[in-house]
Amino acid sequence: MSARAVFLDRDGVVNVDHGYVGRWQDFEFAPGAVDAMRRLQEAGWLLVVVTNQSGIARGYYTEADYQALTARMKAELAAAGAPLAGVYHCPHHPQGSVAAYAQDCDCRKPAPGLILRAAAELGLTLADSVLVGDKASDAQAARAAGVGRVVLVAETADAEGAAIADAVAPSLAAAVQSGLLQPSRVIPAAVRAST
């Protein structure tokens, strides 16, 4: 049985975007984000992070740094009642300074690769899913993948992103509070079984 997910961009949605956040000491959950994610999970959504991490390609931090931060983030969210079903990242950038990651790819948003991979691995129905991002590239990736609803969270959404999104809110917490994600009150059996 397929499930539905809320795909979450990381920097600017889950955490405050301080610019190339690659170490736990620089990571700060966005105000209200953890509670919003817990509410979504309780309402029957799978939580999936999809994030461009060009800081790896640029040499600002390593893949190991990123994985250590991700492990800590997942543990903190699980302890808060908001476990992640998956975290998918793109370490590439065409102009990267680390040769192994300096490439064009199908996973760097606005390409849909991260979303499509998550959907295949987790058995997700994209048309019933939602993406919450903070940039036009997030919305473009969601549309290219066939995600059913796109919500952009940004204090000042750019015109391109706002035109692509179904709704705009100042934060993930505000989007959940105002019902923009339309969470279900019924938790599908497949979701209950996986928790």
From TrEMBL:
Keywords, in A-Z order: Carbohydrate metabolism, Cytoplasm, Hydrolase, Metal-binding
Keyword Zinc recorded: no
Tree of life domain: Bacteria
* Enzyme type, top EC level: hydrolase
Pfam families associated with the record: Hydrolase_like
Name the CDD domains on file: HAD_HisB-N
InterPro entries per UniProt: HAD-like_sf, HAD-SF_hydro_IIIA, HAD_sf, Heptose_bisP_phosphatase, Histidinol-phos
Instruction: Report the subcellular localization.
Output: Cytoplasm
Q: Give the E.C. number(s).
A: 3.1.3.-
By sequence similarity, the record places it as follows: Belongs to the gmhB family.
Identification of the protein by name:
D,D-heptose 1,7-bisphosphate phosphatase
Q: Which organism is it from?
A: Rubrivivax gelatinosus (Rhodocyclus gelatinosus)
